Structures are given as structure tokens and as C-alpha cells.
């Protein structure tokens, strides 16, 4: 035992166990986001439940089965109190569709809990329909009178003319309502779809989610403006932070000597990386927006004052703030890449008559390009997921215009924009409908995760290309 302890095998096992636990937790997190995110757009069946009431009668409830859990849950009559009499093995969470538009006397909660012990019968009627309305409502029920085709119909993207007469819908909560066909955005009969049709509808719903604008207080519609705003901000931030970070690293490693001033600068860079992001957002609001933006307005947009043009939060200031936030990452990664290059290459270049600037430009910087890309990858990953500073310097809940459009001058850096991270926060914590918000939050989180992976994968492929290119150059130089 003593020999095993002195040999260090114990620490090897500890390290391996910690790595395994971290990997398992990471896989569990990704699996949860992917599973819940994909489930949000899967066309689930509409189930009719025959339920025995407390008075001994029967009631009919229709909706999508969201989940079933053991133990007591909220009652269907009062969602704020727990019924202690419920003590069955399973409780069913049912989504009945929206009811907020109905008269308050007959409206019920969208999500209700059912006691599985009180469910007498389940069925999946083939004529059950899901209606997606233009105002964000989602209706479940059975059509009592209409000529609707039992198919997946998108009234926006197809040339199908809906019947002119209003539809009579038996809503999932048992009320009969009239539906104006002009308000129907899409509809389909989920119980009549086979596996292939559900898969096609699943892909269509994801496409609609990625390409449409959000509406109804961001609880319906898509996330295209948030995706577009996130990508534009990250790309602009990358264009700003990369040259400044690379030049600063080259100066610190190649030109600046080992002095107390250089040491202070390096310590300041390391401390800058530890500043909370919300503090950086306050700095961006005070300096970039109010000071720089205010000066720009006085110099170039004086005729529009007191209405600010650049003296208000916008895309450019958000990109500058995140560039300052991620600058230490690029500096440190680039400087480490420069330190790994052998000194012999620099000395060989000097011996051939090259100046220090020529050596850095033609020998050192190209071979340190993979390290620069590593810093950029880390910067992009952090910037794409930041929310706190953006809330102060440009991101909004809803932006009526995109920062890039067909209106001259085409790129509008002063405009406010939407961001996936803030949209996730808004959907998850500002919605009154907790269950729907949770499901939608996972879908938005999956899109954000996919966007970060896409950006990082592009930078990673470029880094690998540069690494292979300059590895061949280095090999040929060693051969000579």
C-alpha cells in the first residue's frame, strides 16, 4: 500500500475518475438539451381522456401528453394548491392548447395534471386537429363542421384556399368555439400521420422555427432575428478582437523586454480576463455608448439631436464590449503559440539578413496562426453565450429591423438587435406559462448550442488547415 501510494498510482486513478465524471456530466447535459429541444417540435398525438370526476360522473379531456411522474401534483381546479388526497402511482401532465382568448368564466389552464387512477379510457381520434393561429394561439380539438383536408397544410406557404365559412371547433377543454379561417396559419391532424409524415412535419417545423420571426411575446414563432443578430455580433467582434489581440501578443513576446512594466501589463491582462462580464457591460455602457457615442452624435449627427444615433446601445457597442471582454483570451493563446516556436528559426532568419519585422511577418506569425485561431475559437465560444453585458449595450427583446438589410447603407451598426442568449433568458424566465416556456427554452438552447458548434467548427477547420500547411513548411526547412 505504501509503495502504491509513493508510486503515484492513486493520483492517476483520481485524475482518471475526475475526467470520467466530467465527461459523463457533459454527455448528460448535451443529451438533455438535444432530447428536450428536439421533443419541442415533434408532432405528438392528441389523446382523449375519459376521466372520472369527484362527483362520480365523467369528463372528457383532450390534449398532448407531456410527461408522467409519480407523486402528488397540482390539482386541475386550483393550480396554486396541492391536493393531499392525490397519492397515486402516476400523475399525467396534459397540454390542452391555449385558452386565454376565451371568456374568463369558461377558460381553464393550458397545462393540467390528471390522476392516472381516475382515467377510465384513452383514445386517439383520427379527426383530432391542431391549429396554429397567426396571433400565436395553439388550438387542439375536433372540427364539427369544415371541409379541411386531413393533411399538413401551411396556409402561408401553399396555395390552398381554406373554406370561407368559419369552422366550428370542439376545443380540448370541451367548449365549442368558432374559428375564422383567415386566422389559421397552419393545421394538421397529428393522429392520422404515419411515421414518415411526422418526420417530414418535424423537419418543416424546425425550418419554420429557424426562419420566422418571434411573436406573441416571444412565446410563438421562430428565432431568425436572434440567430442573425448573434452571428453578426460574433463576426464583428471577431474582426475587432483578432488584430488587437494578435498585435498585443506579438509586442509583448517579440519586442517588449523583461521589465517591471511588461510584467505589470501581463498581470493586467490576466486580471482583465477575470472581470465579471456584467461589470464590463457597465463599462461599455458608460464609455462606449455615452462618451464615444455621444461625441460621434455631436460631430456627425448634430442635426438629429437630442434624438441619439450612436449615443444609445447598439450592435457596434455590443461588439466592442465583447471584444474587450475576450481580448485577454486571444492575447494569452497567441503568446503561448509564439513561445512554442524554436528560437533557431528566428536566428536563421536574422543570419540571412532579414530584419526583426520581416522575421515576425514571414516566419513567426504564420507558424503561430494555429494558436491565434485557438484564441479566436475560445473568444467566439464565450462571446456567443454571454448575456449580462449585452443587456446593457444593445440587445433587446424584440428588434423590428435587422442590423443588415437592403436599406442604404445596408449595414446599420447603430441598431439594437436580438441575441439567442437573451432570447433564451426572456423565454425561460419572463413567461407566465412555465411548462411551455421550459420546452421552448430547450429548443432555443439547442439552436444556440448548434450555432456555437458551427462557428467553432469553422474556426477549427481553418486552424487545422494552417497547422498542416506550416508543418510541411517547417519540415522542409529542417530538411534543408
TrEMBL record:
The keyword Transport applies. Keywords: Cell membrane, Membrane, Transmembrane, Transmembrane helix, Transport. It is found in: Cell inner membrane; Cell membrane. PROSITE patterns: ABC_TM1. It comes from the Bacteria. Residues 227-459 form the ABC transmembrane type-1 domain. It is a multi-pass membrane protein. The keyword Transmembrane applies. The chain crosses the membrane at residues 12-34, 226-252, 272-293, 314-334, 440-462. It holds the Pfam family BPD_transp_1. Belongs to the binding-protein-dependent transport system permease family. CysTW subfamily. PANTHER family: PHOSPHATE TRANSPORT SYSTEM PERMEASE PROTEIN PSTA (PTHR43470:SF6), PHOSPHATE TRANSPORT SYSTEM PERMEASE PROTEIN PSTA-RELATED (PTHR43470). This is Phosphate transport system permease protein PstA. The gene is pstA.
Amino acid at each position: 500500500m505504501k509503495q502504491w501510494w509513493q508510486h503515484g498510482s492513486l493520483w492517476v486513478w483520481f485524475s482518471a475518475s475526475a475526467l470520467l465524471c466530467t465527461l459523463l456530466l457533459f454527455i448528460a447535459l448535451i443529451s438533455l438539451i438535444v432530447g428536450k429541444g428536439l421533443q419541442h417540435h415533434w408532432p405528438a398525438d392528441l389523446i382523449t381522456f375519459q376521466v372520472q370526476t369527484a362527483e362520480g360522473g365523467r369528463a372528457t379531456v383532450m390534449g398532448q401528453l407531456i410527461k408522467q411522474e409519480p407523486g402528488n401534483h397540482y390539482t386541475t381546479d386550483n393550480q396554486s394548491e396541492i391536493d393531499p388526497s392525490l397519492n397515486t402511482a402516476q400523475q399525467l401532465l396534459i397540454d390542452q392548447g391555449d385558452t386565454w382568448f376565451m371568456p374568463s368564466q369558461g377558460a381553464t389552464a393550458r397545462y393540467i395534471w390528471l390522476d392516472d387512477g381516475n382515467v377510465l379510457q384513452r383514445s386517439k381520434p383520427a379527426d383530432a386537429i391542431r391549429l396554429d393561429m397567426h396571433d400565436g394561439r395553439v388550438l387542439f380539438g375536433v372540427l364539427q363542421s369544415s371541409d379541411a383536408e386531413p393533411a399538413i397544410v401551411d396556409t402561408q406557404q401553399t396555395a390552398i384556399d381554406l373554406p370561407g365559412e368559419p369552422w366550428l371547433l370542439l376545443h380540448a377543454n370541451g367548449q365549442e368555439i368558432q374559428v375564422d379561417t383567415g386566422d389559421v396559419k397552419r393545421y394538421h391532424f397529428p393522429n392520422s400521420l404515419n411515421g414518415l409524415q411526422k418526420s417530414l412535419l418535424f423537419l418543416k417545423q424546425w425550418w419554420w422555427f429557424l426562419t420566422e420571426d418571434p411573436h406573441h411575446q416571444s412565446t410563438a414563432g421562430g428565432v431568425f432575428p436572434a440567430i442573425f443578430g448573434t452571428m453578426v455580433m460574433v463576426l464583428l467582434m471577431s474582426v475587432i478582437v483578432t488584430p488587437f489581440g494578435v498585435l498585443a501578443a506579438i509586442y509583448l513576446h517579440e519586442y517588449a523586454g523583461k521589465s517591471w512594466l511588461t510584467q505589470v501589463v501581463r498581470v493586467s491582462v490576466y486580471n482583465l480576463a477575470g472581470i465579471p462580464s456584467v461589470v464590463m457591460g457597465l463599462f461599455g455602457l458608460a464609455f462606449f455608448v455615452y462618451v464615444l457615442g455621444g461625441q460621434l452624435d455631436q460631430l456627425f449627427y448634430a442635426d438629429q439631436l437630442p434624438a441619439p444615433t450612436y449615443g444609445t446601445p447598439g450592435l457596434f457597442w455590443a461588439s466592442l464590449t465583447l471584444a474587450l471582454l475576450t481580448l485577454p483570451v486571444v492575447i494569452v493563446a497567441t503568446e503561448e503559440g509564439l513561445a512554442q516556436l524554436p528560437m533557431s528559426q528566428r536566428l536563421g532568419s536574422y543570419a540571412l539578413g532579414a530584419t526583426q519585422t520581416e522575421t515576425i511577418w514571414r516566419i513567426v506569425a504564420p507558424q503561430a496562426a494555429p494558436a491565434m485561431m485557438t484564441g479566436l475559437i475560445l473568444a467566439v465560444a464565450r462571446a456567443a453565450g454571454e448575456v449580462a453585458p449585452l443587456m446593457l449595450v444593445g440587445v433587446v427583446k424584440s428588434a423590428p429591423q435587422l442590423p443588415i438589410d437592403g436599406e442604404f447603407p445596408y449595414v446599420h451598426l447603430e441598431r439594437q438587435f436580438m441575441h439567442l442568449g437573451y432570447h433564451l433568458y426572456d423565454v425561460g424566465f419572463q413567461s407566465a406559462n412555465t411548462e411551455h416556456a421550459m420546452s421552448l427554452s430547450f429548443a432555443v438552447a439547442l439552436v444556440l448550442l448548434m450555432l456555437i458548434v458551427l462557428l467553432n467548427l469553422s474556426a477549427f477547420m481553418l486552424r487545422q488547415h494552417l497547422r498542416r500547411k506550416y508543418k510541411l513548411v517547417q519540415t522542409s526547412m529542417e530538411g534543408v
